[in-house]
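From the methods appendix. Each design record in this collection lists the tokenized structure first, followed by the designed amino acid sequence. Records were kept in a plain field format so they could be parsed without special tools. The example shown here is representative of the layout used throughout.

RECORD:
FOLD TOKENS (569 positions):
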């Protein structure tokens, strides 16, 4: 096998010729998805393993970044996913759309709204008295002290941190989670005035009245998909906040705005433009919800990989979000207008791919990471608006409400067998994976062998910007794998057993070498990144992933790193 490689981030503008893996590109951020490998991180692998005109398959396509990389390099992507949301997002990423026609369609939508934006968000400027627009409102939980039953605004304790609250009445300190939610209240309003610019004010009676627009008065359709304890991501906090269906993730005002916007979009007669407009809508569907977290310095967006609703949250003007997203989507269509490679995006299980055997030139895929993310729940808001939900029974995940490790392993084995079937003899498959559970790692590796693949190389792809969970890993020692391990497999004609290991010393050597580099960043010293390095070294040496463990504490020295990353030393 080839030696272990640690990809180093290069310039953020790097393209097919480099190893840059920034997630800060404009194309990457047009539409969110739960797990995304940047296009710049995929392109080098496609260039290495394919020629122009070749087919590239991704059976877990997610948002379609593999497809975007492939069409940009003149390859033909074959994308599929179990998730209707993924298929919708990937299709719009890889299918060209005339940017001028898109802009005209946007104007048709705005015309059809016929005064709704002003009805919902117009407000007088408190400084000059002229007409202004509500940019956003900040809402706070009202919680009850578990000792004296005094109600309090969480907002009033934002300066001292929100994990532990102190009752203003009895002075008792308690965990926020132990105090029940009794309601919510508007605590801050930001308005945009043409004369005065962006201004902040305390909420007025008019602000509160508009925000509490009656849901019963919404004549347009909106999703009524139930959300309850049968969902893996449901928490008792959702019940306290009155969230029993998808519509409850939105304020009444924003739900009406979205319903009106959705109705105008669905009236678009041209199918491609209607899909592009729907893509723009789903790109703001989470930001327009109650899931957009307040932050003292800047908006922190929604917490990916969960359906968490923060105690302090934004209610953003839906049409402000829409205008900004329209500009981003139009730039995407301008950049992809010249793509000529034909793309195919299909809703299908990876266990039954809709492609002929021995016909595909290469596979690049980013399969589900086991128990870390329940994709059907993460996509719930998108798919509820689309009117088409993922079947959780078919998902390759590990969940406390459903599948265990054995079921996950069976689905992954079936998926790799399908990848093996559709690939031409002897060609490669690249698999991006991360998990802190070494049992999941061994299940994945066993699945590749059972399917008939031989390991060719192992690399560590360190994303330039960590996800929210990656930040939590660095700051709080949370058990999160901050870097991806990249496995390059080769289709074998017969089953190839993994080579026997030669001891655990190669694991420590890889971690030690990473720590001893002069140019190593703080992020590359994180336990999450070093764990990925350790797992990659174990695989490279033919060892079981269970030879490594994950340290939930910060690694302050190479001695700590050695004991944390290498079992038994």
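DESIGN:
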């Amino acid at each position: 096998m080839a030696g272990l490689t640690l990809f180093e981030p290069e310039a953020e503008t790097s393209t097919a010729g480099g190893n840059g893996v920034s997630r800060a590109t404009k194309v990457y951020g047009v539409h969110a998805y739960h797990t995304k490998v940047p296009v710049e991180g995929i392109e080098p692998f496609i260039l290495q393993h394919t020629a122009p005109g070749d087919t590239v398959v991704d059976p877990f396509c997610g948002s379609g970044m593999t497809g975007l990389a492939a069409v940009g390099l003149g390859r033909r992507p074959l994308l599929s996913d179990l998730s209707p949301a993924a298929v919708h997002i990937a299709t719009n990423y890889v299918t060209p759309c005339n940017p001028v026609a898109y802009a005209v369609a946007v104007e048709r939508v705005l015309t059809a709204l016929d005064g709704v934006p002003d009805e919902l968000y117009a407000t007088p400027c408190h400084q000059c008295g002229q007409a202004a627009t509500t940019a956003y409102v900040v809402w706070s939980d009202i919680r009850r002290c578990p000792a004296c039953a005094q109600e309090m605004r969480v907002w009033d304790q934002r300066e001292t941190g929100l994990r532990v609250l102190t009752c203003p009445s009895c002075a008792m300190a308690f965990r926020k989670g132990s105090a029940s939610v009794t309601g919510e209240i508007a605590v801050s309003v930001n308005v945009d005035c043409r004369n005065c610019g962006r201004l902040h004010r305390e909420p007025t009676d008019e602000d509160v009245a508009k925000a509490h627009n009656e849901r019963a008065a919404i004549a347009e359709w909106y999703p009524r998909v139930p959300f309850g304890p049968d969902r893996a991501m449901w928490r008792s906090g959702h019940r306290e906040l009155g969230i029993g269906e998808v519509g409850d993730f939105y304020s009444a005002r924003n739900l009406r705005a979205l319903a009106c916007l959705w109705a105008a979009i669905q009236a678009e007669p041209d199918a491609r433009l209607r899909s592009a407009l729907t893509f723009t809508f789903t790109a703001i569907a989470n930001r327009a919800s109650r899931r957009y977290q307040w932050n003292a310095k800047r908006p922190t967006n929604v917490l990916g990989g969960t359906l968490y609703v923060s105690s302090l949250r934004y209610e953003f003007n839906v049409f402000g979000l829409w205008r900004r997203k329209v500009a981003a989507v139009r730039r995407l269509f301008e950049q992809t207008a010249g793509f000529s490679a034909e793309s195919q995006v299909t809703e299908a299980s990876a266990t039954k791919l809709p492609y002929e055997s021995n016909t595909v030139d290469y596979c690049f895929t980013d399969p589900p990471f086991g128990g870390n993310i329940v994709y059907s729940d993460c996509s719930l808001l998108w798919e509820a608006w689309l009117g088409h939900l993922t079947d959780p029974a078919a998902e390759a995940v590990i969940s406390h409400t459903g599948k265990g490790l054995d079921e996950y392993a069976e689905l992954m084995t079936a998926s790799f067998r399908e990848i093996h079937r559709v690939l031409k003899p002897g060609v490669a498959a690249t698999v991006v994976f991360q998990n802190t559970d070494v049992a999941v790692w061994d299940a994945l590796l066993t699945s590749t062998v059972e399917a008939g693949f031989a390991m060719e190389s192992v690399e560590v792809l360190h994303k330039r910007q960590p996800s929210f969970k990656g930040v939590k890993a660095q700051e709080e020692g949370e058990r999160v794998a901050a870097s991806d391990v990249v496995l390059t497999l080769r289709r074998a004609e017969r089953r190839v057993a993994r080579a026997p290991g030669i001891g655990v010393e190669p694991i420590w050597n890889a971690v030690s070498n990473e720590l001893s580099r002069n140019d190593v960043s703080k992020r590359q010293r994180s336990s999450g990144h070093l764990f990925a390095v350790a797992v990659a070294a174990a695989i490279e040496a033919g060892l079981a992933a269970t030879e490594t463990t994950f340290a939930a504490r910060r690694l302050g020295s190479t001695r700590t790193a050695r004991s944390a990353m290498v079992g038994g030393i």
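APPENDIX NOTE: The chain has two domains: 5-92+338-499, 115-325.
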